[in-house]
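tool_call: predict_structure(chain=1)
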Amino acid sequence: MIFNLFNRPSEEIQYLGTPYTQDCLDAIGVILQTQTYIENALLLSCNQIHAYLIKSNRNTYIIRSGFSSGYSGEGPKGLASSLQLLLKHNIEVEEINISEKLMKKVNHSSLSDADLETMFTARVVRPINIYEYIYAIYKTTEYQINNDRFYPTELPFHLVDSRIFDLALKFNDDPNYSILTAYTRLEDIVKDKINDHSLFSNSLLKTAFISDKQRKSIYSWDTNNEKVSNALGCLFTNIFTAYRNERAHSEVDKPYSQQIREFLLINELYLLESKAIKR
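tool_result:
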């Protein structure tokens, strides 16, 4: 390739992170959240300064050298946390030593295709230091198992029903508004669906989706099982009872991550509603 001949920067690499440890940890969280399969993870080490080369089935990433080792500061803590995160995802990490020249190219976003090939084929460090970096800080590999603070806390837009996508876009600014409006909008959709605007909340949803001994629901789901269809209908009334009614009668102050989970619950109701079939 002509780029290799002139040692031009590779167009294959995406550079993430900064010289600051937290930015690099956040970058790893984004990769773990968005990439379906990690093929290779290399810890790039140079004089107790560390970066990452991570290759997924779609992309090649460089995480700049926001990590360090050999003392007890933020850099070594970040290195230990990053290794624990990767191990949590069952990703095998190998370490290689690189030159100061290569580490400078890592941080200046100027690695060539030849540089990549050099790193992928380099001799890995033996004996393994990976666990020593972790034990030096946390004394265990389990610290990150129940720790989710490095993952991006965002709505997965690709899963959001188109009828509330506008509310998803406003969610960061006012999650309470987005959630309550989603409930109200869903009620209006169901009222139109059964052509009855006299019913509200649980009465509306029971009429639309839940059968009892006296009558059949107006809509059901193609599950070949009336009990399963009824159980799906109960999701509507139970979620409204557990979440929507609370918001309708008092001001709600919940952690942002909990608000995201609730919005996704409502989103699931929208997706179910779209598949309901009139009897």
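agent: The chain is about 50% helix and 15% strand. Proceeding to next step.
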